[in-house]
């Protein structure tokens, strides 16, 4: 009976193959405009404006929601600048990691004015975010994400300018006046903290209380 039981248990065990990992390769049309050109063409937009021309941009994901500090948004960047994309989805980082190269087919999407800056979004949706199913129709990944695709530009506080909005930058030799005393964010609301350098320059650092580092 023992031998029979062991035989039955052995026959029920099955080895499962790991699911195949297929590197995404973009095979569509090449990029024909840049983020800077896109911003220039739609700089006067106030209401959501449909993009009706077959513009394609090639960019890299430089910011996502992995830490909880960014909510339903992606930040993408090319050699000319950066722009925000509103996406109606949680945990976007599981599909679009920092360093992921993408091609965005813009015809059919909208340019939206968000927080005084242009954003790629949609119309008549919650916060003008692109529905997740729609997002997959317009955005294509190319190759595996590479960390070297998202290397920040080292700048000083005094050199920050409009061209760097929504891009990845690194600030050195700066400090928080309340460093060591206050956390990045209060427990119950998004919080502004001041960051300074030794020359009297300052900038606001705004963090969400939902960020995984909020209490640090």
State the shape: globular
Please provide the count of β strands.
14
Helical amount among residues, as a percent range? 10-25%
The biggest beta sheet is recorded as: 9 strands, mixed
Strand and helix map with partners:
Layout lengths: L1 H11 L22 H7 L7 E2 L5 E8 L9 E6 L2 E8 L12 E5 L4 E5 L2 E5 L8 E2 H7 E4 L10 E3 L13 E3 L2 E2 L15 E7 L4 E6 L9
Structure description:
With 216 residues, the chain is mainly beta. It has three helices and 14 strands. The strands form three sheets. Strands 1, 2, 3, 4, 5, 6, 7, 8 and 9 form a nine-stranded mixed sheet that branches. The chain has a three-stranded antiparallel sheet with strand order 12-13-14, with no helix packed on it. Strand 6 (110-114) and strand 7 form a beta hairpin. The radius of gyration is 22 Å and the shape is globular.
Which tags fit this structure?
mainly beta; 3 helices; 216 residues; 12% helix
In short:
This protein has 216 residues and is mainly β. The chain is 12% helix and 31% strand. The strands form 3 sheets. Strands 1, 2, 3, 4, 5, 6, 7, 8 and 9 form a 9-stranded mixed beta sheet that branches. Strands 12-13-14 form a 3-stranded antiparallel beta sheet, with no helix packed on it.
